[in-house]
Amino acid sequence: MSLQTVKDFFAAKAPDIHVIETEQSSATVPLAALAHGVDPDQIAKSICVRAGDDVVLIVASGNSRLDNRKFRDRFGAKPRMLGAEDVVIQTGHPVGGVCPFGLAHPLPVYCDQSLRKFDLVVPAAGAINAAVRIAPERMAELTSAIWVDVCQEKQADPDQQ
Fold first, then answer.
1. Which fold does the domain 2-151 belong to in CATH?
2. Could you tell me the residue ranges of all domains in the chain?
3. Which tens digit of pLDDT belongs to each residue from 84-105?
4. Range 154-159 average pLDDT
5. CB 102, CB 12: distance < 8 Å
6. How would you write 28-93 as a 3-class SS string?
């Protein structure tokens, strides 16, 4: 019922936003970018991690990677990825469909600064073939997210210079 909890979330909090369901999977950043016709960096991936005793949800730009030092400086602990079963237990969403909307349990949501360079991002919506199009600021507002800087700066590809 993960997809339904996301639909219910938007029906209650933002009825102008509609969940987009696709025939093809959008469970990875490249697949999601292809399915939704956007740059991979516009995919807002949600990462469920443990910081010490706490579980948090980090939403970041598609090609961003967590920076262990920045994360530790912000949360006081090294990030530890949750296994797929624990992700489902914590969020109610399957890996590949994890998003900050319609969570099974209240989790602190943090949006990485990497999302702010876009007017529109595409996070998953509770299923491996569902997503929404939303402004990053609105996503943060709807999920009571806190803005953080916990990802590595994207390095320029030397072959493209």
1. YbaK protein (3.90.960)
2. 2-151
3. 999 999 999 999 999 999 999 9
4. 52
5. no
6. CHHHHHHHHCCCHHHEEEEEEEEECCEEEEEEEECCCCECHHHHHHHHCCCEEECCHHHHHHHHCC
